[in-house]
Amino acid sequence: MSVTRTALRTVVIAYLFFLVGWPLWMVVQETFLSGENHLVSTLQDPAVRSALRVTLAAAAWAVVLNTVFGITLGILLVRHDFPGKRLLGLFVDLPIAVSPIVVGLALLLAYGPVQGWLGRPLAELGILVVFSFPGIVLAVTFVSLPLVLRAVIPVLREIGIEQEVAARSLGAHAVQILWRITLPSIRGAVTYGIILTLARAVGEFGAVLIISGGLVGQTETATMAVQRFHQGFATGSSYAIGFLLALIGIAALAIVTVLRPKEHTRGN
Amino acid sequence: MGIEIHHVRKTFGSFTALEDIRLSVPSGGLTALLGPSGSGKTTLLRILGGQEEPDAGSVYLAGRDVTRLPAQQRNIGFVFQHYAAFTHMTVAKNVAFGLEVRKTPKAQVRRRVQELLELVQLERFGDRLPAQLSGGQRQRMALARALAVDPSVLLLDEPFGALDAKVRKELRDWLRQLHEEVHVTSVFVTHDQEEALEVADTVVVMNQGRIEQVGTPEEIYDHPASDFVFGFIGEVTRFGELRLRPHDVEVTLDPESGSHPGRITRLTRIGFEVRLEVVLDSDPGSLGGAHPPVNVQLSRTESQALDLQQWDAIWVRPRAAAGGREVEVLRVGAGR
Amino acid sequence: MPTRALNNPASATAGIPFSPGRTRSKRRPRSRRRTTLTRPAGLALGISVLWFSLLVMIPLALLLISSVEDGWSTFWDTLTNVQTAHAIRLTLVSALAATAVNLVMGLLIAWVLVRDRFPGRWLIELMIDIPFALPSLVAGLVLLSLYGPESPLGINVLGTPASVFLALLFVTLPFVVRTVQPVLGELDRDVERAAHSLGASRATTVRRIILPALTPALAAGATLCFARGVGEFGALVILSGNRPNISEGAPMRIQSYIEVDNTAAAATVAVLLLATALTATLLVEVLTSQERHR
């Protein structure tokens, strides 16, 4: 028994060490221990700063849009019945399963200024979506769409309607119930979803690559800057931004781990 | 040649679960391990089942030393409180499992499964999944599964614990009957004294890792070997220096020899039974301190014959044949 | 007892684009499609669906339309183009291989996480989730450092078909582990004890009792893993070197079609990936709802 146990443990640790641990350590080494400090010098590049700003701004938009959408649809899906509910619930999960490059292409087909079904009329009105900031927002919002919703739904199911019924019996009207009962009770889940959204939006590459046009200093995002430096053999800078993005991701992971509803661990 | 347990000890960290247990269970009997939680009864059963190894001592099943033998080789049947059904297998497959593992020929397996399903009255449910059965049916399936391998010993861990009161009662009677048919040496764990007294032919009362008393239900009830057993096996009330069962208190309207005056402060009727709470006018004993109210249990007929009402003044005394026990002075303050 | 807090029969059906009936009964029969929407809730649903359509449904629908715009033969020609067919095959084969490895390793990792206790276990927990947390482009960089031209191990996968497999292995690591782990944790240990008491060996117990119980979770994890693998882009950009007919995967092929403005061909390959994603989503839904009904 304990032989099997040791063997399993060893295999698992070795696998993860070679697949995740060691490569990750190499990146840290590359960024900090290769002599010059790339992180500081890279961050002084105005184009990099712009890219980070664009990335964070787009991620912030994605958070706002997806939080409103997620909470609204979450309440509708859990608390109400309507025709097409099951289908909607199914489709809403789709965006995270779709390849980012497919997302980029689909958005291009809809909002591209030349061939876009909606993009051309908008362009004629002087509104440019693709190849400008709104396009980036659409792309990162698309790929992180259901994350808040998915976090909220199980909690809404769990808390049930008892509290809401009780509040109503005490004379609260719908808006009061929403603000004072429903929203406070899903606060944790919403935060969890927001952090996931943020991490996903910051790290998005494929969809943004197609949509943003990648104008350095204007519509270039952080991930695109990583690729630009990488292709230009500026390995140090590329790793530095990559490391920064990794840090954001891992910080998000750490927060999420703390927030994650505790799995009840059984004894023995 | 049933079960022999020699000087078994088991500790978990600093907690002593079992302390020098010596027990001999006769072959073919139905034995209850009775005790409160933490008394060690489940640990003892798990040691018999090979799920736990004793720190010291040895265990013999049907004359064979199995102390260091893994569960797989003990040839036991084990029934769990929460059924432990194989959820993805049909009822018949569940029952067949032990035989299939033993590479029994297919035809023989089929015959035996049919036989067992009939025995536990589930012959029409062979093709169902456990999830489609009620709790009682699931537990009967678990029993058939355990019996399929012709175990030398059948071990049951709180077998009725997860069932509701009515099914529990039915299943108890049924287990009693089943045991009469199959006669396999059986040990079951319970914390319910009524269940132990009703089902078992031998009761082992355990407390704090030790065996307090072994005996037939009658012996345990009528001649409890310790204060603990007396208190655990049934309700207890105090009358002066005596501790006795509430139904061993006699109520009269007029003074008799040895009786004591008091007043009925509460009268509750539960079906055929009437329960009184009597506050005595003075302490019949000499223990000092406040005397708690005396609890009395009467039949409805007795109560009606005396026409008892709340706040009536009455006389109470221990019945002549009462199997009461002297109060140990130290324990009085603790109360029950 | 009122069934819904916001239920207001008087205004129940107004303002919703697709509500056929009128809500009178307080108890909703499961079979009948009824709505419990109030006017504000209906409005909120309308706006949500509109936004969802603008963002997701219309673009995806346009993708479908574009792919067959030039006729089915163009659709077919695109898929049978040597370079494209190779890219699709590479992506599918790599995703399948990564899924297979993940099924085995994911199960082992989940097992160790649930059943084993040792110092530093939290580090494993952390490493499992890192592929979730890293932008996939960065994942490519991370792998390149150990398995690229400057590999201290002397293993260089850059620009080889193996690079696709390796990239997918990394980005899909969490799926099987995270779907199997909770199910394994919830398994009743008494069931295994029961099997042992009936004479089943450890191996038999794993094969006949534990694996069947984990099958739905394993299948769901594998499906997620496969869907994610097929769509992976960022890590491939860095790691595969994008060499046509050698290490170019389907998502890269879409990108190169877009770069040469051949949107119809790009859409064709994209639809294939989309269909894979849709099938996977449906499968997972079916598998997990089965699990819930247990």
From TrEMBL, chain A:
<keyword id="KW-0472">Membrane</keyword>
<dbReference type="GO" id="GO:0005886">
    <property type="term" value="C:plasma membrane"/>
</dbReference>
<comment type="function">
    <text>Part of the ABC transporter complex CysAWTP (TC 3.A.1.6.1) involved in sulfate/thiosulfate import. Probably responsible for the translocation of the substrate across the membrane.</text>
</comment>
<feature type="transmembrane region" description="Helical">
    <location>
        <begin position="58"/>
        <end position="78"/>
    </location>
</feature>
<keyword id="KW-1133">Transmembrane helix</keyword>
<dbReference type="InterPro" id="IPR000515">
    <property type="entry name" value="MetI-like"/>
</dbReference>
<keyword id="KW-0764">Sulfate transport</keyword>
<feature type="domain" description="ABC transmembrane type-1">
    <location>
        <begin position="52"/>
        <end position="256"/>
    </location>
</feature>
<feature type="transmembrane region" description="Helical">
    <location>
        <begin position="189"/>
        <end position="216"/>
    </location>
</feature>
<keyword id="KW-0813">Transport</keyword>
<dbReference type="InterPro" id="IPR035906">
    <property type="entry name" value="MetI-like_sf"/>
</dbReference>
<feature type="transmembrane region" description="Helical">
    <location>
        <begin position="7"/>
        <end position="28"/>
    </location>
</feature>
<feature type="transmembrane region" description="Helical">
    <location>
        <begin position="125"/>
        <end position="149"/>
    </location>
</feature>
<protein>
    <submittedName>
        <fullName>Sulfate transport system permease protein</fullName>
    </submittedName>
</protein>
<comment type="subunit">
    <text>The complex is composed of two ATP-binding proteins (CysA), two transmembrane proteins (CysT and CysW) and a solute-binding protein (CysP).</text>
</comment>
UniProtKB/TrEMBL annotation, chain B:
<feature type="domain" description="ABC transporter">
    <location>
        <begin position="3"/>
        <end position="233"/>
    </location>
</feature>
<dbReference type="GO" id="GO:0016887">
    <property type="term" value="F:ATP hydrolysis activity"/>
</dbReference>
<dbReference type="GO" id="GO:0043190">
    <property type="term" value="C:ATP-binding cassette (ABC) transporter complex"/>
</dbReference>
<keyword id="KW-0472">Membrane</keyword>
<keyword id="KW-0547">Nucleotide-binding</keyword>
<dbReference type="InterPro" id="IPR050093">
    <property type="entry name" value="ABC_SmlMolc_Importer"/>
</dbReference>
<keyword id="KW-1003">Cell membrane</keyword>
<keyword id="KW-0764">Sulfate transport</keyword>
<keyword id="KW-0067">ATP-binding</keyword>
<dbReference type="InterPro" id="IPR005666">
    <property type="entry name" value="Sulph_transpt1"/>
</dbReference>
<keyword id="KW-1278">Translocase</keyword>
<dbReference type="Pfam" id="PF12857">
    <property type="entry name" value="TOBE_3"/>
</dbReference>
<dbReference type="GO" id="GO:0015418">
    <property type="term" value="F:ABC-type quaternary ammonium compound transporting activity"/>
</dbReference>
<dbReference type="InterPro" id="IPR017871">
    <property type="entry name" value="ABC_transporter-like_CS"/>
</dbReference>
<protein>
    <recommendedName>
        <fullName>ABC-type quaternary amine transporter</fullName>
        <ecNumber>7.6.2.9</ecNumber>
    </recommendedName>
</protein>
Automatic annotation (TrEMBL), chain C:
<dbReference type="InterPro" id="IPR011865">
    <property type="entry name" value="CysT_permease"/>
</dbReference>
<comment type="function">
    <text>Part of the ABC transporter complex (TC 3.A.1.6.1) involved in sulfate/thiosulfate import.</text>
</comment>
<keyword id="KW-1133">Transmembrane helix</keyword>
<feature type="transmembrane region" description="Helical">
    <location>
        <begin position="88"/>
        <end position="114"/>
    </location>
</feature>
<feature type="transmembrane region" description="Helical">
    <location>
        <begin position="209"/>
        <end position="230"/>
    </location>
</feature>
<dbReference type="InterPro" id="IPR035906">
    <property type="entry name" value="MetI-like_sf"/>
</dbReference>
<keyword id="KW-0472">Membrane</keyword>
<feature type="region of interest" description="Disordered">
    <location>
        <begin position="1"/>
        <end position="35"/>
    </location>
</feature>
<dbReference type="Pfam" id="PF00528">
    <property type="entry name" value="BPD_transp_1"/>
</dbReference>
<comment type="similarity">
    <text>Belongs to the binding-protein-dependent transport system permease family. CysTW subfamily.</text>
</comment>
<feature type="compositionally biased region" description="Basic residues">
    <location>
        <begin position="23"/>
        <end position="35"/>
    </location>
</feature>
<keyword id="KW-0812">Transmembrane</keyword>
<dbReference type="GO" id="GO:0005886">
    <property type="term" value="C:plasma membrane"/>
</dbReference>
<protein>
    <recommendedName>
        <fullName>Sulfate transport system permease protein CysT</fullName>
    </recommendedName>
</protein>
<dbReference type="GO" id="GO:0015419">
    <property type="term" value="F:ABC-type sulfate transporter activity"/>
</dbReference>
